[in-house]
Design brief:
The structure is a homodimer. Chain A starts with a strand and ends in a 7-residue tail after the last helix. Chain A is of the alpha/beta class. The first copy, chain A, folds into two domains: about 240 residues, Type I PLP-dependent aspartate aminotransferase-like (Major domain) (Aspartate Aminotransferase, domain 2), CATH 3.40.640; about 100 residues, Aspartate Aminotransferase, domain 1 (Alpha-Beta Complex). In chain A, helix 2 crosses helix 9, helix 3 crosses helix 4 and helix 5 runs parallel beside helix 6. Chain A is built from twelve helices and 13 strands. Chains A and B meet through helix 3, helix 4 and helix 9 of A and helix 3, helix 4 and helix 9 of B.
Chain lengths: ~375, ~375
């Protein structure tokens, strides 16, 4: 199967191999070595010296962890949404009682840092900014460096959903002053879903100390205490740890900058190929994502029908759209274990499916 | 390695085999089939027709899910604790603002159903009872049937931590009227950690509708909505699903009653063997657990030293105690993929370690 969704991503053979490793004691020396090494490697890709914790849960769990650990009920938060995952962050904050000021954009576009600055200037009660680095639902990457600069000029806490970016698209957590950065194992890391990551700056710890939202399972204070002895507070998703260790080994062997360059190259290859098929891109191409490409299906051709035919006839799995454009857009994931070859194979069969449709023409 | 802790438990070869399966689309037909089948199989072992959901997280995550979904801040809750995991349930409820009435017992003993009845009679504001079916920290199994009878006679919501019991020790969720029952993949299910399970009675759904605690990641309403199309709200721990499916296949092939009988037999074998070594049992033997056996180390011999020697010299991993008896008790796990042979091997080397100690004599 050519699995070309933006996560779970395909696992390389050596990752599949280590998934066969037998269970070990999560409170013993072998696991302490494992979590210590994996944590260090993640910090290298997060480009941070901050604390970093590995949670057992999905990426959305890490988003909830950020809300639970750093906010209090009634606290005013600017939630910058450029798509479904930005909306989700706002929803979690609201569910926990935050006073959410939502800033949305035209779907397919990026957030304007200056607009964020104006919102912060106009509303000094805002303490915290939630922002998506890479929006999986639209295939847009925000200019996080510029956004961070604005947010930090107002001295707000900056919480970044980097779930589908970190490890694939460069993020300079410390240099850009990102207080909290989140990611998930099933994205660029070439591991199965089930672990999520969060880095915490000193300011994040200050907020942690003051925050009043209820927290237990996601409590970073407990995570910090246990990590000191190479443990997690609760039983960790052990097999995903094995996979993650191997995925990180491969990423380091390739070289951090080479990993980013490959993602950029393969993404460009994908965008060129989609356009060569006469399909219209969904995202503003100035902010096109290097991990996922979204495009409109041909006029009159539902993404659901296309996706079903791609799977049934060609063993190729792409993602349909999300939200309002579920049926009119499709998304190709190109993160983690991917080269131009898998993209060519996917584009080839997408072209065949379109050609077969009598109504198939560019939208 | 002879891994004899009460979870993660060793994985059978066929489970390790399926862990090698490539990732699939978590929003596609293959996963829909997988989650539907696994959910049905879990219901069979939970002995329930209630809704049952699979969460991506540890067992503690399922405990937090129960608190988040069914309680409101200030709500009065009776938390029946017979050890560390019972304490944890009370702590989670407190973290979410519940008004917790805690009932504790002498460590190593079970909860007295009549005492629970007296607490409920004396304090009609209590809406909900939290109880541990099998306490992993002490090796005690509560008489859940009798406890449930009392709790339901007062018409309270009954939430059961069955993390280390369900699938290994019989629990009649529906016949006993247990409203919410929790378990975790790394216990009797012969799968890695990373998935947790919760069954919900109609009364639980009523409480869900009224509960005001913040919930998002653990929201059972969202889980129900997505399960209708064979999905989970957030990306599921896919590889653990593969393992769980195979573990359940093995359990069904053995037969539910045979699985319980094997656990009872192996547990008795373990208890007999520990006593034959001259060691004193920690748990009240009338309530001895069929999934974990706790015993005192010989006088003057720390469990940490014993555990280290067992691991370093004999490749055998047992658990040390928890809480006040961390250093003076040890615990042998016998749940999931286990027979008398692994217990004999563990007891043999425990006997050798004790004999080597100059001070080694029964406490």
């Amino acid at each position: 199967m050519n699995l070309r969704i933006p996560g779970p991503t395909p696992l390389p053979p050596s990752v599949l191999q280590v998934l066969q490793k037998q269970m070990i004691n999560h409170r013993g020396p072998e696991f302490a070595k494992l979590i210590t090494g994996v944590t260090e490697d993640l910090k290298y890709f997060f480009e941070t010296e901050n604390d970093l914790f590995i949670l057992t849960g999905s990426g959305t769990g890490a988003m909830e962890a950020a809300i639970a650990n750093f906010l209090s009920p009634g606290e005013r938060v600017l939630s910058v949404s450029i798509g479904n995952f930005g909306d989700r962050f706002a929803q979690i904050a609201s569910a926990f009682g935050a006073d959410v000021v939502k800033m949305s954009v035209t779907p397919g576009t990026a957030a304007d840092p200056d607009e964020i600055g104006r919102k912060l200037a106009a509303d000094p009660a805002i303490t915290t900014v939630l922002v998506t680095h890479n929006e999986t639902s639209t295939g847009v990457t925000n200019d996080l460096e510029s956004i961070a600069k604005v947010v930090k000029s107002y001295e707000k806490l900056l919480i970044v959903d980097g779930i589908s970016s970190v490890g694939s698209i460069e993020i300079k957590t410390d240099a850009w002053n990102c207080d909290v950065v989140l990611s998930g194992s099933q994205k660029g890391w070439m591991a199965p879903p089930g672990l999520a990551f969060a880095s915490l700056s000193p300011l994040a710890w200050e907020r942690f100390a003051a925050a009043k939202n209820p927290r237990f399972y996601w409590d970073f204070g407990k995570a910090k205490h246990y990590l000191e002895t190479g443990e997690t507070p609760w039983t960790p998703g052990m097999s995903v740890f094995y996979a993650l260790e191997e995925g990180l080994r491969m990423m380091k062997a390739e070289g951090r900058e080479n990993v980013y360059a490959r993602h950029a190259r393969v993404a460009q290859h994908c965008r060129d190929g989609v356009q060569a098929l006469g399909l219209k891109m969904y995202a503003d191409q100035n902010y096109a994502s290097n991990t996922v490409t979204a495009f409109y299906t041909p006029e009159g051709l539902s993404s659901k029908i296309m996706a079903k035919e791609l799977e049934d006839e060609y063993d190729t799995v792409v993602a349909i759209g999300q939200g309002a454009t579920t049926e009119t857009t499709m998304r190709i994931g190109h993160l983690g274990w991917v080269t131009e070859a898998e993209i060519d194979a996917a584009l080839d069969v997408i072209g065949r499916v379109i050609q077969k449709q009598p109504a198939g023409q560019a939208r």
